[in-house]
Each structure stands twice: as C-alpha cells, then as structure tokens.
C-alpha cells in the first residue's frame, strides 16, 4: 500500500494552506490540526472500504508451447474470489506488472480494463530464445475506492511458456509439398526409372529402353517384361550442429543456432518422409550429443526433443575434434549436413581441412547464413570517413567469406549459403537433388 498521486496532491495543497494560516496574522491557525485529521480519517475510511487482496483472484494464462521467433497472446483476468459473474463488485481498472524471463519479450506493465465484475487484458509476447520459462508471480496495482491509496499485491502465476524450435514449415505442409513434388512431379520419372533399386516389373511397350528388358522373366511369362528401378532409400543422414559462441549471434531477431535448428528439423522431416534415417550430432569445444540415425515418426519426435534441449553456449568451437569424432562414429557412407559458420581465416582454414577429410568418405553439405548487417553496410550510402571504413571492412569480410565457400565447393562440398529466411527451402532442395542423383 502506498499513497496515490491524488493523496500527495491534496496533502501538498493542505501543507501550503497550513503554512499560510500559520504565517498570516489573524488567520484561524487552530483549524490546521482539524484539516489534517479529516484527511487522515478519509485515508483510513478509504482503506477500510476498499476490498483487500484476498477478495480477488488472478486467472493466469494456461501453460502453452510456442515456436521460437513467433508471438503469442496471453490473457490475464482479475475477478472476485468465488465470483460466478453476478452480484460481486469488480476490482475496477488495475495495472499489472510482470518480470519476463530472459528470452521472452513482453510489456513490463499493462492495464487491466474493467468488464463488468472482472478486469482483463490481452497482451502479445515474443519468444526470442528456446527454453522452459515460468512466470512465477505478478504484481497488481489497484486504486482504492476514493483513489487516495494505491494497493499493490502479488498473485501467483503458474503459467509456463515452453519455447521449442520452429517447425512451422512442417506443420504448414510446406515440406510435404516439396516431398510430393519429388514423388509425383517432374522428378518422378528420374526417381522411378533411373535409380539403382528394383521397384517393380511392368509390360514392355514401344518407346521404352530395351536395356530394361528382363529376358528371363519375359521367357517365363511369354511376353516382354521390363524392370522398373527407383532411387535407393534408407540412406543415413546426420545433422551436425555447431553450438559454439559464434552461433549465439543474432540475425533477423534470432540466434544463428535457432535458425539452424529450424532448418535441420525441416530437413529431418523431409528425410524421414522420404524413407531415410536421420540422426543428430551437436558439438562446440567437444562433442556434446550424438543421436544415431533412425527412421519413422517416433524418430522425428526424439530428434525434435533433443534439438530443443540444446543450450546456448559461449565457448569456441573445436572443428578438428568434432569432425574427427563424427568420422569415427560413422560406419557407412552418409549424408552429413554441417551447420556452422566462421568469421576469421584461421577458423575457416581449420574448418576447410576437417570438412575435406570428412568429404572423402561421405557426402557433405555445408550450411551457413549471410549476415544482412554486412550487406547493409555495403549498400548504404557513406556520409563520412567512418561509414566508408565500415563499408570497406564489410566488403573485405564478405570477400573472404566467399573465397572460403568457393574453396569448399571445389572440394565437392555442397554449399547452402543464403539469408535466414531462405535456408530451409534451399537445404531441402539440395537434399532432394543429392538423393535424385544417388550421390549417397
């Protein structure tokens, strides 16, 4: 409980009047104690008439799951305890204050508007980090009946907000459309006709390649029969996520690691839908997680859960140890998708050397993201020497980056380097292309 602005204003005016009554000769100075006594009685009556904290209950939002990078609406309702919507005095207008955990962005305070016997407010919060966040408790500030006192009370808020990797591309059907295009669209003939895995026998008709005729079965059936092939399935795909300090840099409102996890899960879903086995590997200064390749919907659920548990680390990545350890883990030829990044030539050289070794026995896709900030520096009109120096430095970093990616491409590594919004589509398209060409 604290004095309101109205009470402070009235007290200030009474203090000025009291000073005037004391200073001015002949003024009724005996009235000063009476005025202050009336004000004190008014404050006491206001406190007595105003319902206390226990007369109200705060209905907090239900626990929910959110995708990282997206927003969600939360509704708070302050109502009389035991209220069934009739005959109870409402709390009136109130202000609610909440301390949002790091990783959630929301208004620090907002007004609960009266609606009959209740007061409610709906706010929008944004998820900037993955994690399991508990609000704990919130503070509600109400004005008294005469608005002379502000009542501050804490209410428990059991709401938990579970922020998980963003799989909107999967739930919206975007990835399924790409897989359907592979199965039934323009690539279907290549997938079914020029693969290395036997699919079925069919009658030979004019125009078909005579090399597909199975003469033994044709003699048994008394008619020409052709073998129809398709691309091989059950390939191993390993999603290798760099979780070092460089991946904590924010791009487009999210850390790089979250963009990478979102794209990795989209590729994992595409691989599982395409009949392949998908595994997960996470590393920083040392290997942290290895989930062997597996198939089926249950495998994707496990993949998503383990990716959501990856913490944000502030240590430097050791690519040599990570790639060596991964190479020892893999017993057969795999598609290894490395999600990583670099900023200096030393890190880049170590990365290139270790990816080259891994690429000798496996198919490697290297995924990185362009920083819109560097592009902005190069395209912005320079107004002084400082901006010119920034543009030159950005151009130098961009040039070194392109040289490293070109070197990886010459080694036979597939490169996916694009803006954050285009990583998922480019990555899935690259996977479908590799699978159609049977490079694994």
TrEMBL record:
Top-rank taxon: Bacteria
Organism: Jiella endophytica
Record-linked InterPro entries: DUF58, vWFA_dom_sf
Coiled coil (UniProt feature): none
Protein name: DUF58 domain-containing protein
The DUF58 domain, residue ranges: 201-372
């Amino acid at each position: 409980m604290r004095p309101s602005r109205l009470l402070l204003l009235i007290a200030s005016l009474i203090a000025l009047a009291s000073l005037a009554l004391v200073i001015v000769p002949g003024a009724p100075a005996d009235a000063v104690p009476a005025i202050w006594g009336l004000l004190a009685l008014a404050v006491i009556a206001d406190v007595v008439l105003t319902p206390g904290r226990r007369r109200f209950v705060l209905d907090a939002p239900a626990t929910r799951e959110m995708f990282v990078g997206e927003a969600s609406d939360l509704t708070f309702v302050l109502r009389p305890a035991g209220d069934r919507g009739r005959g109870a005095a409402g709390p009136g207008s109130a202000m609610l204050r909440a301390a949002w955990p790091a990783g959630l962005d929301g208004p620090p305070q907002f007004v609960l508007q009266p609606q009959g016997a209740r007061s409610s407010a709906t706010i929008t919060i944004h998820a900037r980090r993955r994690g399991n966040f508990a609000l704990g408790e919130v503070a509600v500030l109400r004005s008294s009946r005469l608005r002379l006192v502000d009542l501050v009370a804490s209410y428990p808020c059991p709401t938990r907000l579970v922020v998980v990797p963003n799989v909107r591309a999967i739930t919206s059907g975007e990835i399924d459309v790409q897989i359907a295009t592979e199965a039934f669209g323009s690539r279907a003939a290549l997938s079914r006709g020029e693969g290395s895995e036997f699919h079925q026998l069919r009658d030979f008709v004019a125009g078909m390649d005579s090399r597909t005729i199975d003469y033994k079965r044709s003699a048994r059936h008394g008619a020409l029969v052709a073998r129809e092939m398709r691309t091989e399935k059950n390939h191993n795909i390993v999603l290798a996520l760099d979780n070092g300090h460089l991946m904590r840099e924010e791009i487009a409102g999210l850390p790089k690691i979250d963009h990478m996890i979102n794209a990795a899960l989209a590729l994992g879903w595409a691989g599982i839908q395409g009949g392949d086995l998908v595994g997960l590997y996470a590393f920083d200064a040392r290997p942290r997680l290895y989930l062997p390749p597996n198939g089926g919907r249950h495998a994707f659920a496990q993949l998503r859960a383990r990716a959501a548990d990856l913490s944000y680390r502030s240590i430097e990545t050791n690519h040599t140890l990570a790639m060596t350890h991964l190479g020892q883990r893999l017993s057969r030829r795999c598609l290894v998708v490395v999600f990583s990044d670099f900023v200096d030539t030393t890190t880049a050289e170590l990365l290139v050397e270790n990816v080259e070794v891994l690429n000798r026995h496996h198919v490697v896709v290297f995924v990185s993201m362009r920083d819109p900030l560097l592009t902005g520096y190069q395209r912005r009109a320079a107004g002084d020497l400082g901006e010119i120096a920034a543009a030159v430095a950005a151009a130098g970093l961009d040039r070194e980056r392109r040289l490293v990616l070109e070197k990886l491409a010459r080694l036979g590594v597939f490169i996916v380097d694009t803006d954050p919004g285009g990583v998922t589509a480019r990555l899935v398209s690259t996977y479908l292309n590799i699978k159609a060409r049977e490079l694994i």
